[in-house]
Amino acid sequence: MKVILFRSVDNLGQAGEVVDVKPGYFRNFLGARGYAKEATRANLALMESRRKKIEAIVVQERSEAQSQKAKIDGTELTFELRANDRGQLFGSVSTADVAAALAAKGLEVDRRKIEISEQIKHLGKFHIRVRLYPEVYGDITVTVERQLRPEDREAMEAEEEQRATRAAAKAAKQVAVSEEVPEKATDTPQEEE
After folding, report:
1. Which residues of the chain have pLDDT under 50?
2. Per-residue pLDDT tens for 113-161?
3. Residue 160 lies in a domain
């Protein structure tokens, strides 16, 4: 069935194009949401009269997507999750989690537009694409780290405190040694000829 798109639809076409779709897809999705109308003579004439307006809308949507892409590109998200000794997560990172983390950074993205190529079920770095508009994608880096238990966190903080104390003591000792060296040099008697 031939339909005229009044809005750009991913994997189908841009606004203003005449495309061929199955009747059920048109009836249940495209027509129900007002994205398309049947390609009759009357609707083609209506499309021609609205073509400039639709083209302006397409240009505006594309420019908005490009500006959002500039904000999203290079964004790094970090998740601290529980994992076993082999690095496998107890659960996973979903598109909803990524959308919530982006929203916390002030970037509103619909979770359905986030494309995760592989399930995030282990520790590491992952690259995710966000489909902002047909042929406009933003790239995000997601890092998944092990969440420490309270006991482990306390032990780690205590160990870091001990390291800092040892480093400060070592630095103080080096300062003391460097101050002693010039004094010894001046205390030694010089031989007169």
Report:
1. 184, 193
2. 999 988 899 999 999 999 988 888 999 999 999 887 666 667 667 777 8
3. no
Tell me the CATH number at 82: 3.10.430.100
Q: Which residues have CB under 8 Å from 97's CB, separation 6+? A: 79
Rounded distance, CA 37 to CA 23, Å? Answer: 11
Do 20 and 78 share a domain, yes or no? no
Same domain, 90 and 140: yes
| 102 vs 11: CA distance, rounded Å | 25
**Residue 23: C-alpha distances to residues 1, 4, 38 (Å):** 6, 13, 10
> Which residues are registered as beta bridge partners of 120?
93
Q: Give a yes or no: residue 6 inside a domain.
A: yes
CA distance 144 to 59: 37
Q: Return d(Cα 8, Cα 17) in angstroms, integer.
A: 9
Structural tokens at position 107: 């970037």
Q: Which domain holds residue 33?
A: 2-64
State the Cα–Cα distance between residues 142 and 140, nearest whole angstrom: 6
Q: Examine the fold and report which residue of 14, 41, 64 is the final residue of a domain before the chain moves on.
A: 64
